[in-house]
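Our consortium's second objective concerns turning raw sequence data into structural hypotheses that experimental partners can test. To show how far this objective has progressed, the report includes one record in full. It was chosen at random from the queue rather than selected for favorable results. The single chain below, 325 residues long, was entered without modification.
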Amino acid sequence: MRPIYTLLLVTVLMAHVGAAQTTPDTKAPAPAADPEKLASSVGPTAFVQFAGNKFNMGAIVTYDFNLGYNFTSKIGADFGVLLYTTRTPFSLVTTADWRYTTILGAPYIDVRYTTQRSGVNLTSILTGSGGYNSVKIYSTGRMKADLFNHIDRPYEIIGPLTFTPFLNFGAGTGTVDRSVMARPYNIARPYETQGFIANGEAGGNFTLFHHYKLGGSAYGLAPMGPQKVFSRLVSPDSLLGGDSSKNRFWDEFFETGGQYVNTYGGGPSRIARDNGYSAWIEVTRYKNLSVEVAYTRSVHYAYDSAFIMVKYDLTKLLRNLTIGE
């Protein structure tokens, strides 16, 4: 975990040094166009998003339908509904090697705050998510809250090429599939946790002509106190599972930690710990469409995953329909 903390510290220092060197007479380079940052004008927003993770134990796909509203240029909110499709080797039918399941995910609502100070971009997102039943939908059966913070500052290197180091950090009462400013390691993951957990990520993007990004990051999940882990590979109605090797408790049971509830409120914190790194390529060549392809290595759980995300921004279409532009 020490390399991660070192990278986090370096990124923070770079951001603060860059902010301190910017004077009123010096114009900071404009941030690269980013479909993650929706139109700043007041009005409705919307997007649909497809994200998939493929790894040696199976595959998870999420479909996200998001509707939001920008109250000011800095404050906005979103409501979203998720749909999951999973492919697992734990088939209940002897004639099939894989089991496919499509089920509704826990809906979410968030409040966003975005601002810029001395060339440094700041974003905070407070998300609430949860479902009433962990069997009928993919959720822990409890409400969860997550606070996410993002800091970045673009630096012009030469011509159309910029480098943007960033720092993400936050905490919540469990892991949340964050759809706004989604990260390759935390969406379409093979598990979900319940219990206080902090998270951090540091990395950077090289952006060419505002439309092409090459980036990488290191991340860490630091649980504290009792934890529960809910699998997205092992169904609640299945007695089949893996061997939980390499700390992959979610590969053997639908729920891990529940046996400790009466005494501790959950299992030991180590069952929800994770750390690793990601690399990605993102293309936003077309105005409303972005495509991201990524690779993630989970060091703690010792698995690799191939990630793809396709996002279509419906904001312009929605505003044309609502205000007749």
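The partners drew two points from this record. The chain has one domain: 2-323. The chain has a mean pLDDT of 83. Both points have been shared with the crystallography group to help prioritize constructs.
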